[in-house]
Predict the structure of Large ribosomal subunit protein uL30.
Amino acid sequence: MWTYKASMRMRETLFYRGHNGGEKKEAKETKETKKKETKKETKKKKEMKKKETKDIKKKTKETKKKASKGITKKKTQTMEKKLVKGKKLPSVPEGLLKKRKRFAARKAAHIKAVQLEKKKRVVTRKLIYSRAQAYHKEYREMYRREIRMNRMARKVGNFYVPAEPKLAFVIRIRGINGVSPKVRKVLQLLRLRQIFNGVFVKLNKASINMLRIAEPYIAWGYPNLKSVRELIYKRGYGKIRKQRIPLTDNSLIEKNLRSTGIICMEDLIHTIYTVGKNFKAANNFLWPFKLSSPRGGMNKKTTHFVEGGDAGNREDQINRLIRRMN
């Protein structure tokens, strides 16, 4: 039977059960909050430690710097006291000032030299132009004199015999096969070491004898002004420090032949063509001309020009061969 006491017991049990469940929940919550608080505290502690270590490092660096500065200051002060007694040191070091002075002096000297060179160049240019004009007049007079003398002789009924030529141009037309020692030596003296090499030669008794010895291996004749000019301007190379250098500028000629009075290309052409007193120096300065094989080929190298070949003296006809080879 259901009684009052039984109902009271049931209520008590229910009450206790509900109360215990709430307590458990509260305990769990308190534990979680404690864990969170401990984590935050550990983080804060770590951050504090890091800050402290950084501060310590900074302080040590500052102290070291201060100490080094103090030492350097003391050293400089002692040096100043030793070197200068009652005098102030200059703000710029003395070595640097000297260096600047030296540089300024060098710069001024260089500018002066450049200006002098410019002035010299202007003077030399004018001189070259005046010389070229004089040479042009001289060549024209020579040509007119020849024509005049020829006309005068024809009027009287005579023949005009021009003066013996002083200049010859020699071209090697054969190779090295079967060359006798004597001929080889003559070709070496004439500086004709390769086929189709050309050289200017001053005509005298000795040089004519040499040309006769080497006649089967060379073609030679008397060049005119046009041939000389074209050869030097087109295929002219100078011997400068034992090297073959193209004559592209008058300064190259001036540097090497200034002592002989030759300062430009026109001077060089004039001395070669007229066979002047400085012919030897001018001719030695010129490297042997390296000509091309003649356009249209050669007739017969082994026979003389007089017999319809190519070897030997061809007088004025050398100019045609030069045109074909230049």
The CA atoms of residues 110 and 320 lie 51 Å apart. The first strand starts at residue 167 and ends at 172. The beta strands are 167-172, 197-202, 218-221, 237-240, 243-246, 289-290, 312-313. The mean pLDDT is 86.
